[in-house]
Amino acid sequence: MLVYRYLNEAFALEALQKRELKVGRLGELNDPADCVPTLTGAPEQPNEEATAAFERSYLSEIYRDIGIVCFSATISDPVIWSHYADSHRGIAIGYEFHESGARLFDVVYQEERATLNYGEAELLRREKDPRAFIEKVIRYGFTRKAVSWSYEMEYRLFLNLYHCTMRGPHYFIKGMGPKKVVLGVNCRVTESDVIRMTRDGSLMGGITRARMDRQRYSLSVRFEGH
Asked: DSSP E strands: which ranges in the chain?
């Protein structure tokens, strides 16, 4: 599956040159309701503040140890380019994921807040099955967003931070060789720049520049030979 990571020019060039991506922290997402599920069937708390504190405390180890990288399955939506690629001045880098490799989770868009069944989650936690516990939390608590976010067509990669590289206060996942590179309409970087950057020829035919469609509010993205 081919998905895209949208970045501004500086971060995109760094990602291409170092073949790495920055891993986000779950507590620093741009939507305060994201990755913050409500617990159903949890012990009753005296007020809403105490309930929210209990829910965050219950998942504190996951918030501490798990990071996230977000991708999009679409490359033609001008709104995504405006929001995540510095108003079309940035770059979208395409990465290919296979079933036998790292697992991508597709985001479900819904009206209701994400919920996690406390009893089921607690059973896994008490059985000391951390992988199954984390899988359940991710599937039901960390892959649900409001319907208004659906334009993103988002897929998520969750990573154990212990397996990432830390540089300064940030974590990175290395070995992220790109499959495609799409330059924004107003990006200063050229196709030749990217070819010289990669040097190994792995992106030949896989670099292009997005262009505004003349009939629709959409972007036209064509790769050589396609």
From this structure: 2-7, 20-25, 38-40, 66-72, 91-96, 104-106, 108-110, 115-117, 144-146, 154-160, 165-167, 170-174, 180-183, 207-209, 211-212, 219-220
